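wait is this the right file?? whatever heres the structure
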């Protein structure tokens, strides 16, 4: 199992009252599996992804990634697991506006210590695989919404993670672009045996 979630609960604490968002959730994700997390807005999809992506700490329960119990680790170790094993794709692509498509995919690799030449080669290959060979040097402002989201997928793949967490990745796109993004995610999962959770309404 790539991901094992046991008895996961998350309570949002605020001064006036506590809100239970997740309650005793159990979930397993296998290698090369693509799972849709479906529910209306406000049902806790993003909270669940933030917990398994080690961005938020659950109120109780355990999260294991590749057999390692993660929610008891120090922040430095969590950061390492996040950057090496997990790729995030958000509804708004969150690309760096001052950098090209290629540079946006290179940066996460450089942070992990990949040699510059190798990082550029990897980035170029991933972007070409996603049909963006003519957009390598374009900045986000010069890309369509669908193209920007494909660059975001490339960035999520840059460090060869074991898990991709996609939070409403097509929420801002038209039907054609949405279908294309989902097809590409499916293609990536199939080709690389990455596991993927897609939250969608």
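ok assuming it is, sequence goes like this
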């Amino acid at each position: 199992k790539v991901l094992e979630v046991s008895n996961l609960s998350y309570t949002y604490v605020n001064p006036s009252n506590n809100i239970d968002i997740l309650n005793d959730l159990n979930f397993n994700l296998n290698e090369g599996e693509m799972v849709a997390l479906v529910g209306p807005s406000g049902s806790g999809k993003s909270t669940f992804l933030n917990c398994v992506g080690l961005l938020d700490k659950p109120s109780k329960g355990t999260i294991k990634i590749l057999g390692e119990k993660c929610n008891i680790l120090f922040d430095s170790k969590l950061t390492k697991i996040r950057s090496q094993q997990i790729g995030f794709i958000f509804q708004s692509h969150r690309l760096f506006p001052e950098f090209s498509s290629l540079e946006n995919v290179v940066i996460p690799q450089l942070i992990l210590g990949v040699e510059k030449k190798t990082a550029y080669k990897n980035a170029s290959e991933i972007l070409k695989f996603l049909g963006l060979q003519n957009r390598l040097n374009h900045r986000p402002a010069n890309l369509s919404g669908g193209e920007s989201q494909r660059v975001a997928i490339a960035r999520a793949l840059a460090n060869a993670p074991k898990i991709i967490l996609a939070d409403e990745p097509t929420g801002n796109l038209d039907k054609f672009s949405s279908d294309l993004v989902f097809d590409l995610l499916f293609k990536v999962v199939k080709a690389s045996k990455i596991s993927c959770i897609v939250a969608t309404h």
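The chain has a mean pLDDT of 91. so i think its the right one actually
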